[in-house]
Amino acid sequence: MTKRTKGLLVVLSSPSGGGKTTICEKILGRHKDYVRSVSVTTRKRRKGEKQGQDYLFVTEEEFKKKIRKREFVEWAWVHGHRYGTLRRSATEAQAGGKVAFFVLDVQGGMAMKKQYPDSVLIFILPPSLSELKRRLIRRGTESSQEVKDRLQTALKEMDFRSKYDYVVINRNLGQTVKSVEEIIRVEKLRSSRFDHARWSKDNGQTETLES
User: Domain 8-190 maps to which CATH number in 3.40.50.300, 3.90.1150.10, 3.30.70.270, 3.60.150.10?
Assistant: First the structure.
């Protein structure tokens, strides 16, 4: 079947511990044709993380080399480490008509929207700061000072929610996943994403009018 829709770039952002990565994984498990862009980072791998699946873990020098070669859509310092989004992830998804997820902080989200105006930005809000704190502590990957730092960063990040296309409060994981899926379903129906010229050619519209 000939593809008649353009690729859809979906950005998921939330404060650290807000659930963006888990939501992405749940949706990818339910939609085998969806893909995820894997970010590049210089931070150390956490327990349970896999190279090339959770992140592309690289050295500082390797990261700098990618900057020089202009391989990133954007990159930024986050909590003392570099994170970057590879440009090829976006171009390949668009060309292949794929739904591609980008799990990014707000700096990355703004950069994606600037370079790819058709991208869909979804901000995941925690039910409350106290709940976010509880999730960070339960995660067990940060010290008490790091939890405090991340909560302070979260307050700044949440100020960006009005710049996103959609805001979803993550009270219940299952319902949040369904909400994001519904956003994607609606966005795929936008006229701007439809390949009108290809549809006309495939269905003989031009030939019919000329005959």
Answer: 3.40.50.300
Complete DSSP assignment for 76-114: EEETTEEEEEEHHHHHHHHHHT-EEEEE--HHHHHHHHH
In 3-state terms the chain splits into helix, strand, coil percentages (rounded to 5) of 45, 20, 30
Q: Do 154 and 130 contact (CB within 8 A), yes or no? A: no
Task: Look up residue 73 and give its two tokens.
Answer: 């859509």
Tokens coding 14: 């939330």
Q: What is the DSSP letter of 32?
A: T
pTM of the model: 0.80
**Longest CA span, the chain:** 75
Distance between CA 166 and CA 12 in Å, rounded?
10
Q: What's the rounded Cα separation, in Å, for the pair 103 and 39?
A: 8
The domain ranges of the chain are 8-190
Per-residue pLDDT reduced to its tens digit, 4-60? 567 899 999 998 888 899 999 999 999 999 999 999 999 998 888 888 888 999 999
**Residues sharing a CB contact under 8 Å with residue 102, sequence separation 6 or more, in sequence order:** 9, 10, 11, 12, 36, 37, 39, 85, 89, 90, 108, 112, 119
CB 164 within 8 A of CB 12: no
192 alpha carbon, distance to own chain's centre: 20
Q: How many CB atoms are located within 10 Å of the residue 210 CB?
A: 7
